[in-house]
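ZP: hey, is the nicotinamide-adenine-dinucleotide complex queued? I don't see it on the tracker
AM: it wasn't, my bad. submitting now with these inputs:
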Amino acid sequence: MTEAGHSVVSVDDFSTGMSDRIQHESYELELENPDAEKELARILKNHHIETVVHFAARKQVGESVQKPELYFKSNVGGLLNLLNAMKTVGVKKLVFSSSAAVYGMPDVEQVTEQSSTNPINPYGQTKLVGEWMIDNAKVWGLSAISLRYFNVAGTGWPDLADKQALNLIPIAISKIRDGEPISVFGDDYQTEDGSCIRDYIHVMDLARAHIDAIPQLKNPGNEVFNVGTGEGSSVFEVLTELKKVSGIDFELNVTNRRAGDPPKLIASSEKIQKALGWKAEFGLEEIAQTAWSSRGF
Ligand SMILES: NC(=O)c1ccc[n+]([C@@H]2O[C@H](COP(=O)([O-])OP(=O)(O)OC[C@H]3O[C@@H](n4cnc5c(N)ncnc54)[C@H](O)[C@@H]3O)[C@@H](O)[C@H]2O)c1
């Protein structure tokens, strides 16, 4: 954002974020906190904020199943405070981090924005409710874009590498570090090599989608866009790429399927290409390469 010429102010509770990575002004605030609405309104007004890019959310699917109330409180309660604050001070532009999790288990080759939404866990539900809340805010003039991210991976700058091992690539890298085999959950899906297929999107391409979205915030309403490459990679393909970039022939441990894993989740990226002129530039090779080279061990 800063490189694209925007002045930025961040608000974060630093529950997973790291304050030492932020080089601009920032505020520590839990968005669902009862005082957050007033505090947010104050920050928006004092800094003459024109556009909010709302990333802050809890995002662990498994944890959301165990603690659904926490997810609704943080993700939905936090968004409610934010929208109220924006309404109060008249900030009418928003880019929202939504997720492919809103689709659930779609039975289609490529998911379009018209595909039905049927989230299968509380995390995905909070994102869909978020989109609905944002859409309803058109009554007071909110112009919003909800970006439904597919599988975000790779690293933009080594010092900003993902420290949490929650997704396939960071988990695999931490297992390689510890010399442990890497689990593949199921090799009996109806896919070419039997493992699950996902659409991996490089974090730098994702960042650019937000920058490209901002100038399009003109009319009240909520426009949703998939952010994916339109290409799928299987778990085995991702791990083969990691073997290539690391030069390490690590062991795989094929286990049973995990409940709730759709066999295939690939974005149609036609809508975002047409409307925002956005297209992913990086593929699996760059994703694996940048994730590996910034691994920090
Ligand atoms: N990483 C992915 O693959 C992916 C996919 C789809 C959607 N998303 C969405 O993208 C957004 C960013 O995800 P990320 O991968 O960077 O996760 P992250 O955990 O690295 O970032 C989330 C940030 O929000 C902050 N935060 C969390 N809850 C908060 C709260 N209640 N109040 C204030 N701050 C809070 C955290 O401290 C952290 O800095 C999230 O909304 C997530 O749901 C991520």
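AM: back. The chain has two domains: 9-152+200-227, 154-197+231-293.
ZP: great, adding it to the tracker
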